[in-house]
Design brief:
The protein is mostly helical. It has one domain. Helices cover 72% and strands 5% of the residues. The protein has 11 helices and 2 strands, in the order ααααααααααββα. Helix 1 packs across helix 7, helix 6 packs parallel to helix 7 and helix 8 packs across helix 11. The longest helix is centred in the middle third of the chain and has 48 residues. The radius of gyration is 20 Å and the shape is globular. The two termini are 18 Å apart. The relative contact order is 0.14.
């Protein structure tokens, strides 16, 4: 297949996958590839994460290579087998696998599951809902704290759950998009700096940083571009503010979208979080022009949608230009 139909076909398939995700999300009755990845990682972690630090680090590299390579090979093999049975089966399979790599509806629904009880003043239910999507302690959070946790999650996961999978899908179809999800799942399970994972998860954490480096920065820019047509967005100074604030985040990538979201909303993100009773102080991002309140969750979701739409249109346009040789 020539470059032209290949790139344009990927764009069309991705549009189908986006629509499917927006309608269905991740229904519980449908087996999800990420769940299978998580089970495999859990089994290998329990068997391999042993020994002295050097051995753990080497086995961590082995884990990362095995899981990512296996996921890519299996996705490619399944699609090849389906295409061999019938070309339409191959296309349908690609759309389903691409949709499974996206979390547009899931991220929106998770955010609104926090916002809905918070609007009713039900802090208990809101704390329970936000605990489902963040790792920090939530028992003592007030409206501002719950809102901050949710907005930060929406900003960070705009990359992990939407734009980065789109980026890698446009470069290599469903197999590469799922390989990225394997990298992301590895990082979420073993990419910690705790005593247990500091060596074993080193390779997974570093590969995740690399895989998100370009998408994170492009997403922040796309978020700003989309905000230019949103009346309530504070776009003036947002680019410079993001450039200044983002490097202060402990993650080399998450700070870009979190800082941009903070400046566009006119709020301040970051600060003190509690994890298992321990205090973790994050750099402050944005300026507190408005106090954090539940309305900012809905606005953050709108910025998330604007970001992925602009991101996809630009990336798809570049893929189409590359495909036609222009």
């Amino acid at each position: 297949m020539s470059a032209e139909p290949l790139s344009l076909a990927l764009v069309v398939l991705l549009i189908g996958a986006i629509l499917l995700d927006l309608v269905l999300g991740d229904p519980r009755w449908l087996p999800h590839p990420v769940v299978a990845m998580g089970r495999l990682i859990g089994i290998l972690e329990r068997r391999w994460n042993r020994g002295p630090p050097r051995a753990r680090r080497l086995k961590g590299f082995l884990l990362t290579g095995c899981v990512v390579g296996l996921v890519y090979a299996m996705a490619w093999g399944v699609l090849a087998a389906l295409a061999w049975l019938h070309p339409w089966l191959g296309l349908a399979g690609e759309v389903l696998l691409l949709a499974s790599a996206l979390a547009i509806k899931g991220l929106r629904d998770a955010a609104m599951a926090v916002a809905t009880p918070l609007m009713r003043g039900d802090l208990g239910e809101a704390r329970h809902a936000v605990a489902m999507i963040v790792g920090r302690d939530t028992e003592a959070l007030d409206e501002a704290g719950i809102t901050r946790a949710t907005v930060e999650t929406v900003a960070e996961n705009s990359v992990d759950g939407i734009t980065a999978p789109l980026f890698w899908a446009l470069l290599g179809g469903a197999p590469l998009a799922l390989a990225y999800k394997a990298v992301n799942t590895l990082d979420s399970m073993v990419g910690y700096r705790s005593e247990r994972y500091v060596d074993f998860g080193y390779a997974s954490a570093r590969l995740d940083d690399l895989a998100n480096w370009v998408p994170a920065r492009l997403t922040a820019l796309a978020m700003w571009l989309a905000a230019l047509v949103m009346p309530e967005a504070r776009t003036r100074g947002a680019l410079a503010g993001t450039w200044y604030d983002a490097p202060g985040h402990p993650s080399p990538n998450a700070g870009w979208t979190e800082a941009m979201m903070a400046h566009l909303l006119g709020v301040q993100l970051g600060g003190i979080n509690h994890y298992g009773g321990s205090i973790s102080e994050r750099a402050l991002m944005g300026e507190p022009r408005e106090p954090l309140r539940v309305a900012h969750i809905d606005r953050a979701v709108r910025h998330m949608h604007g970001a992925w739409i602009v991101f996809f249109l630009v990336m798809a346009g570049l893929a189409g230009t590359w495909g036609t040789g222009a």
